[in-house]
Amino acid sequence: MSRFLAGLGAAALLAAISLPTTAQDKKVEPKKVQPKKERIAISDPAQVKDDKDFATQGEYVGMVGSAKLGVQVVAKGLGEFDVKFLKGGLPGDGWDGKETMKTTAKRGADGVVVLTGKEPAGTFSEGKLVLKDGANGEATLTKVLRVSPTIGAEAPKGAVILFSGPADVEKWNGGKIKELSDGKFLDVGIKSKQKFGAFKAHVEFRTPWMPNSGGQQRGNSGVYMQDRHELQVLDSFGLNGENNECGGFYQAHKPSVNMCFPPLSWQTYDIEFTPAVYDAAGKKTANARATVLHNGVKIHDNVEFKGPSGGGQPEKPEPGPFQIQNHGDPLVFNNIWVVEVN
């Protein structure tokens, strides 16, 4: 299996790069008519228990020879998937952030999902991905459901509880509750009534199942600190990790690693925020800064903001509220608390 692993790490990486074609080589292919994908937007886990694509998508881990391999499978709708191989393991759990290979997979008429790229060959079935290599045999990877180490973190003494259950909806302007099969959670499109300066905060959120959507139309929301600086919330599972994707500070900083879990998984942000500093004359003397852990992994380390995010309110010496943004997608939030820092 060692040659197979080497192929994942080197030769297949080269094969994944699209080389330019010459004018002589270029062929005009007839356009394929793509079936229209209706918008699916599900926030309740009970509604996907029989969804075969939901069962296939997610994260897989296993050994190929003596080396660990992580795989992220992203549903694209109508039985199609993007597949990313990560040498060393999953993001935040072994992957070095460098060596990857991308391919695709598709559900056939027989209901079986198979890898459709040139290499490697493989089949998904009952929470397993079996990779096959003619020269060296096969390797089996198992689907895993990761849980953030800070999920359910208890608010420390003296913390401001912004949401621990339906009764806390009164702490938000425009606050509303979304009742699902597994609980009652905070809906989007709201601002906290209380305003904050410097703080440490904990936020839990869950992106919806939207396999037929992509980009900014796939589970879009955001957590605005002081209603000025947006920490993006998006179903960015399996993507590169940009400043407009999950974990990114919109238009300012991309995360050091994309720690986004698959849709309908509870995720966490743990944030330390220092607002901009102003002198007595109202002149800014220091920029705002933030450190963020996404699902327990540090993705921003004391990054600096030159100004507010697009859509954010102007910076001022005064404190500001939290905003949970509404982009029309059915996300839910839970267990939000803040420790004010003097």
Can you offer a commentary on this structure?
A hairpin with a 2-residue loop joins strand 2 (67-77) and strand 3 (80-87). 6% of the residues lie in helices and 39% in strands. With 342 residues, the protein is mainly β. The protein has helices at 2-15, 52-56, and strands at residues 58-64, 67-77, 80-87, 100-107, 113-115, 121-125, 128-133, 137-144, 160-163, 172-173, 177-180, 183-186, 190-192, 199-206, 221-225, 229-233, 266-274, 277-278, 284-286, 288-294, 297-305, 323-324, 332-340. An 8-stranded antiparallel β-barrel has the order 1-2-3-4-5-6-7-8. It is globular and about 70 Å long. It contains 2 helices and 23 strands.
Order of H and E elements: HHEEEEEEEEEEEEEEEEEEEEEEE
Poorly predicted segments: 1-5, 9-26
Strand content: 35-45%
Largest beta-sheet details? 8 strands, antiparallel, barrel
Distance between the termini: 57 Å
* Extended strand count: 23
Count of runs of 4 or more consecutive helical residues: 2
The order of strands across the largest sheet is: 1-2-3-4-5-6-7-8
Shape: globular
Radius of gyration (Å): 22 Å
Average pLDDT figure: 91
Binned, the helix content reads under 10%
Ordered list of secondary-structure elements with their pairings:
Layout: H1 2-15, H2 52-56, E1 58-64, E2 67-77, E3 80-87, E4 100-107, E5 113-115, E6 121-125, E7 128-133, E8 137-144, E9 160-163, E10 172-173, E11 177-180, E12 183-186, E13 190-192, E14 199-206, E15 221-225, E16 229-233, E17 266-274, E18 277-278, E19 284-286, E20 288-294, E21 297-305, E22 323-324, E23 332-340
Antiparallel strand pairs: 1-2, 1-8, 2-3, 3-4, 4-5, 5-6, 6-7, 7-8, 9-23, 10-13, 11-12, 13-22, 14-17, 14-23, 15-16, 15-22, 17-20, 18-19, 20-21
